Amino acid sequence: MKISSNWLKDYIKTELKTERIGEFLTDIGLEVEGIDKFESVKGSLEGIVVGKVLTCEKHPNADKLNKTTVDVGNGKVLNIVCGAPNVAEGQTVPVAVVGTKIYAKDGSFFEIKEAKIRGEVSQGMICAEDELGLSDDHGGIMVLDETKYEVGKNFAEYFELTSDEVLEIGLTPNRTDAMSHYGVARDLHAFLSTNQQKSEFEKVSSVALNNEGSHSFTLEVEDTELTPRYIGAVIENVKVADSPAWLKDRLKAIGLSPINNIVDITNYILHGFGQPLHAFDADKIADKKVKVGTVAEGTKFTTLDGVERTLNGSEIIIKDGQDNPMCIAGVFGGANSGVSSETKTIFLESAYFNPVAVRKGAKFHGLNTDASFRFERGVDPNITRTAITHAIKLIEELAEGKLTGELLEEYPKKIEDSYIIIRFSKIEQILGTKIHREKVKEILKALEIQVLNDIQNGFEISVPAYRADVTREIDVIEEILRIYGYNKIDAPQKISFTPVKLSANDQDELENSWARTLQSLGFNEVMNNSLTSVKDETDVVKLLNPLSGDLAFMRKSLLEGLLQNAVYNINRKNQDIKFFEFGKIYHKREKYEERKQLAILISGRNDAENWLQPKSATDFYNLKAYVKVLLERLAIDHKEVALSDERFSDAIEYRSEERTLVRIGKVAPQMLKDFDIDQDCFYAEIELEFAQELRSKNELKFKEIPKFNKIRRDLALLIDKNISYQELYQTAKKNKSPFIKNINLFDVYEGKNLPEGKKSYAMSFELLNEEKTLEEKEISHVMDSLIKSFQKEFNAELRS
Q: Is-above-0.90 flag for pTM?
């Protein structure tokens, strides 16, 4: 949200500079993400002076150029080459002298320099209106009235130029009270007034209106639950035209494009007070009756953007006397009832609509407008009349309109303030510090929260209705802390706690253990949104009321989020990726399924580049090793099998108790292409709940380090090419000997010295008897049994 510094000063008077205001706003939760400068004319015409053309003759070396001499005051005459067809001797003109910056619409600029053009010296530029940012006219240079413009004067002195500083506030969705300049000023004043900073703030109220005659319009609100408050005004004899410069500049400063005086006034009130308004062409309202309610499902309605929409029957609709839709209330107006240049009479609307109903209507039609953004979060129901009266005054002033008759209003049941009890003991418990009772009262008063009664340990308070987010005691405590100042709360120097014994049934302990292990291996943890968009809607969980099309589904896999993290880093020259994430995935099969996984993604180099070792790209086996490290901490038995998964080009999975525990694979090229990643990525996902289930069954026991040394023996086996190491490994694991402690593959050879269709695996075996030193005959017995198993199962041969 953009806040104009000039506009803010309409509501709060302070001597603070914009940068300091930005710091204070950030301190109270309205985080200022940046401050930009706005100029009604880019560059503010700096370097532009009034000049007089003394001579003008054809350029000797170019048919379309003229060679001129221009007096720019103080006896200084410049030689300027000009290509405008209308330049002539004796004209008074705006001149950009050397060093002046000429800005384009996109903000880019070029600087005027002394140069030779076709052999003739040019010491400036005679300007057209579009080159100065005064209009889009480029028909020729701007010729000035010599009786009004004095040669040598700064051109900017003849214009009322606006310069402004605009704060970009990253507003959180709950702060509906601060979605306007008035709201921000009110919050800023609450902080300044309670922190010994000078400021003056005047609460806005309705203004007196002078209505003439009467009108025959009527109002009917069909459902006061959907529309608790509605006010309408009939204004005649309006002249729809351009807005004055000050109003245009206010809107331009916050990124809005001026349209006409009526629409601009409604936008001005919206961003000034936070109350959306809507203006209808009153002559297009059938039977001069405005109805607020719903229409039948399937009704067609064309909105202002020219799109024909099918209404679902639940939207709040503004209708005419014949039930023709004119507007989706609080969301978007209709094409056939909007204000145009021919409009003479308008019906102006100011209302409070049910936030849930507005949100459902906006999301159903995929519309997100400034009005819906505010209505669906809850605007101030008590500023409705104030906003419309200020708007009427502006329409009378800027569009020459006249209010006719009385305002039409439906407000059968007042929206009450919230009643809450706050306790000082709770404030101290939450904040960790003691705030004086009178200081708390001062802060509440500054926030327009009324203290109804003093009670033994706190206050009975009334929270104004515009604070839709403050409904509980804890919310009030947060408000007190915001204004008191987060920076005033000292961090404790010592934290006391009682150690808690963690059991094998504690999944949090497992996650923390794995996280620490991965961090020690150079990984970074990421956290991604559970909401996403999907191409394949098979088994997907879809939201009923999504925030947008990009956030319409619950994720089916953690892989996509990690790939987005990867491409973000790769595009910023961080190509060595080691990421992990703990997160839930969701499926809809026979029933809804929700599982938590640990996902790991690696890409790029496995080790940082250095002079000692060559560049080494990470690969499938690096990832497999990382997974092994995690599983070894659990002492879980598992077997490896091939995996077919469209996300991977090559993949395996680890299974235990006939269930999948881990999937490991190389990400498929098509998936990498979809994410614009041009380097290999390797991904693993571990089923956390299943891992915890297996972990809880294992009773890990500590034992002494063996007193005796391990014995290593190697076997070089000649086997068929179609036999995998995993098969050999599983066969060795089945050996009944208790002495086999470790099995490893340390060499693979396939070459011309071997028989066709054969390969060689070199395996090492570590043997240990924990009670005594192994004798040679015991070692030979184990190795012989292994050799026989390999010969029987795989027809293996020993290589010498």
A: no
